[in-house]
Amino acid sequence: MRDHSKGPQGHEGDENTGAAGPPSPADSAADLAVWTGRATNRVQWLLAAAGAACLALGVELAVDSAWTSGLAPLVMAVVGCVAAGLLMLYGTLAFVHVAVRVDMEALEVRCGHIGVPRTRIPLSHVVDADFAPRVTPRQWGGWGYRWRPEKGTAVVVRRGEGFVLRLGDGRTFTVTVDDAESAVRVIRRALRLAPGRKAPA
Length: 201
Known about the structure:
By secondary structure, this protein is α+β, with helices and mostly antiparallel strands.
């Protein structure tokens, strides 16, 4: 670091400006770039369209019905269509894509256009990360935010590559994301550079 405590002529303290020791772990950690990635499933838009159709049908029944069949059946039909439409819209739009961010402090996963649900896992809770070449909804019982006692938690928006975090409490967290191998390398490097931590090779 340059010494700025110069005398009147501006020459004092300049002799040792080129001297530098080896980089510290903190310096290396500061050089770690933030990694971001995402995965998208355009098929989910078809399901979103079906949800919008259900919602529109419920509105149409409420507005245009002649009410000849009785109040109770009509109300049930309207509520059923609207509820099904809203559930389908949220369930698909929330998981039409996933965005992943990794820095020296944590991994953050945001789903959908409004970023909800959101998951943040401090890297201090992570033991290691593994590349998963093929993650499928069948493995997790469907799309979206999934949990299975024997497997852990996952965010699955499409078939394909992803990565698996192994956490300190024995659980796992799986995410489908493009270029997952790069994410694994960044996470492992961050674990190696963390003070007092060393990720498995």
